[in-house]
Design brief:
It is built from 22 helices and 27 strands. The chain has 671 residues and is an alpha+beta fold. About 6% of the residues have low confidence.
Length: 671
């Protein structure tokens, strides 16, 4: 009996000791968590329930040279409801008035809103969607509704902001102005001016602390940001909206008539290199045309007859030929190394001068002239092309410039056909913009300048950086050569291949081009052979102000494919409108029926704000708005806005709700 008692006592002590050890270990662990690792676990808990969210900065605006808005960031707001936040008595008292207010604003029956809010309250939904796609004025209105006006903690209102990039003039020049797209890796990319000047436009993001209220649902802790975003700088492009509108519609008309695959047009200011208009239109499956690819900048192909000017300038500069020298066109067909060079005019032109051969775009004349001049010294000819920069990219700021191709005599690919083929624009490769820059250099008396798409970076009324003329080659050739080739290009329009374009009202000079693309048996890379029609030149002919190139790919052969017929009328229309029409407005005309529906998708934010302001006829409260949005809103209401500082509005000189007086000055102080 005594032995059994001792055994039981031992077991009790053993268990008690074990429990004591466990208690000590638990106490040590708790102490360790509380004091040693406490900060770590508290921070971990905070991170899982409270988090800093990025507030994207408003991208700067993109403007045309005449001040028209080409791209802007518009805030869009989403309103949600935290059904747990309001007190029962507040929810009961304000539900019906809130539903009535929402019905008046959105048109949905009040009973449906009541049922929706009650269900959310019953299910403890902390993230119910109320409305989305709201403007700032609409957001202010909904925040004044019963229950919501109590704020996020007592009224349950949750507001979210989303920035939307808009193009106020629609799809015109959209590819050059730029937009955002997702690449194959899922990354956000910007193309056009938006991409090239992203460092200026993007601004600096802010931060806002938010609290987790449900699975993947967060709401702001307060109405004050931890770090306010700073808006991006504005970019002033070289685009002139009036000229852009002319160029776009002139090109579109020809593409539609000729059922072409795609085309482009560029209008450049001769002396500065400022690109005043650029349009790139490709055909969709339904036959409509859209800005999809920047063909003018990125598409490098054989230019055909427009390249003949390079050969003519080189020969005259070296004194190896005279424009009066006569050539036999040999019935319009000559051969080099067994390959035929033919004139478009069946039977040729008989015996004509070099100048006349250029005017009628005789392949046989120009090939003979180039080959005879440089067959024993091709390096001299190619050296001219290299000195003019035709073998290098222009280095424009827009991404994706195509690579030119000028064969070099020292290359293994150089053959007996290389030189004669270059004489009429084959075996070489240039983009439309690279070709235009060369012609513009001739129009500019030998000074070749770089095409520019942006002329200034601004922060409100302060200039940050200006982009002035950049000279690529100060003297391409002698004044004598310039004078001769200018006279010949003027005759191309007066009595050559471009004679259909001639007008007594305004003068033009240039060169037509009709190139075969994917020529040869089966086409290159098994592609289909088709024609590329082009015209490049400048106007007025005597004192050039603008240079212009038009390229149309794959026109319907049954309707025509020569450069003078397909591309030339676009060039003529642009010159005619600029110099004979007086623009009464800078507003862009309605786009054609094929893209009208797309343009309607861009509902005008400013029009909505203006209508809302007209209804209230009172000064709105802009405190908390970005300076850019406040200026747009107040300006549309007829007020004259003066600003101090950058960022968001922290104070305004006119009190919210005060009577609205047109042309009254309002001063905004920005954070």
């Amino acid at each position: 009996m005594g032995i059994e008692d001792k055994s039981i006592s031992f077991r009790v002590y053993l268990v008690a000791f074990a429990l004591l050890v466990m208690a000590i270990l638990v106490s040590v662990k708790l102490a360790n968590i509380q004091w040693v690792q406490g900060d770590h676990y508290r921070e971990l808990a905070r991170q899982r329930t409270v988090k800093n969210f990025t507030i994207p900065a408003n991208r700067g605006n993109v403007y045309s040279s005449d001040g028209s808005l080409l791209a802007t960031s518009i805030p869009n707001y989403i309103v949600r409801f935290d059904a747990v936040a309001p007190k029962p008595e507040d929810f009961k008292a304000d539900l019906e008035p809130l539903a009535d207010s929402l019905q008046a604003m959105f048109g949905k029956p009040a009973d449906e809103y009541i049922d929706m809010f009650k269900r959310a309250r019953k299910r403890k939904n902390r993230y119910m969607l109320v409305a989305k796609g709201l403007s700032y004025t609409e957001l202010l209105r909904i925040k004044s509704f019963p229950l919501f006006k109590r704020g996020p903690f007592k009224g349950g209102i949750i507001t979210e902001q989303k920035i939307v990039r808009e193009h106020p003039i629609g799809k015109i020049a959209e590819r050059t102005v730029g937009y955002e797209r997702i690449d194959e890796d899922g990354d956000m990319l910007y193309v056009g001016i938006e991409g090239a000047y992203a460092d200026y436009l993007k601004g600096k993001d802010g931060r806002h602390m938010m609290q987790k209220i449900a699975k993947n649902h967060w709401k702001p802790i307060s109405d004050v940001n931890e770090l306010d975003p700073i808006d991006g700088l504005d970019v002033i492009s070289t685009i002139d909206v009036y000229i852009q509108d002319i160029a776009h519609h002139a090109l579109l008309k020809q593409l539609e008539y000729y059922e072409a695959d795609h085309g482009c047009v560029v209008v450049m200011e001769t002396k500065t290199g400022y690109v005043r208009a650029i349009s790139n239109l490709g055909r969709a499956e339904d036959g409509s045309y859209y800005e999809t690819v920047n063909y003018a900048v990125g598409e490098s192909q054989e230019p055909g007859s427009t390249f003949k000017l390079a050969g003519l300038v080189a020969m005259l500069e070296d004194g190896r030929i005279d424009t009066a020298q006569v050539f036999d066109t040999h019935g319009g067909d000559i051969t080099y190394s067994g390959k035929h060079v033919r004139d478009s005019h069946k039977g040729g032109y008989g015996k004509i001068s070099l100048a006349r051969g250029f005017e009628v775009s005789s392949n046989t004349v120009l090939v003979q002239a180039v080959y005879n001049s440089y067959k024993d010294d091709p390096n001299t000819f190619v050296k001219h092309l290299n000195n003019w920069g035709l073998n290098n990219r222009l280095g424009v700021t827009l991404k994706g410039e195509g690579k030119p191709r000028i064969p070099q005599p020292e290359e293994k690919s150089w053959s007996k056909l290389s030189l004669p083929w270059m004489g009429f624009g084959y075996g070489v490769s240039l983009t439309p913009l690279q070709t235009l820059a060369f012609y513009n250099g001739i129009a500019n008396n030998g000074e070749k300048v770089k095409p520019l798409f942006v002329q200034e970076i601004r922060a409100w009324d302060k200039s940050i950086k200006k982009f002035d003329k950049e000279v690529i080659n100060p003297k391409m050739c002698s004044p004598e050569t310039i004078k001769q080739v200018k006279a010949i290009m003027a005759n191309v329009v007066k009595k050559g291949t471009g004679s259909k374009l001639y007008s007594e009202n305004f003068s033009m000079a240039g060169k037509t081009g009709t190139a075969q693309v994917n020529y040869g048996k089966g086409g290159k890379n098994n592609g289909e052979m088709y024609y590329s029609s082009s015209f490049v030149g400048y106007f007025p002919a005597d004192e050039p102000q603008y240079s212009c190139i038009v390229v149309v790919h794959k026109p319907h052969v049954a309707k025509g494919y020569y450069g003078a017929d397909v591309a030339g009328p676009v060039f003529r229309r642009i010159a005619q409108k600029i110099y004979t029409d007086v623009p009464s407005t800078n507003k862009v005309k309605q786009l054609d029926k094929n893209i009208k529906e797309q343009e309607q998708l861009y509902a005008s934010y400013y029009d909505k704000e203006e209508k809302a302001a007209a209804k209230q006829k009172a000064v709105p409260n802009t405190v908390g708005m970005s300076g850019m949005d406040a200026v747009a809103l107040l300006g549309n209401m007829g007020l004259k806005v003066q600003i101090k500082g950058m960022g968001k509005v922290k104070k305004q000189s006119l009190s919210p709700g005060a009577p609205l007086k047109k042309n009254e000055i309002i001063i905004l102080e920005l954070s």
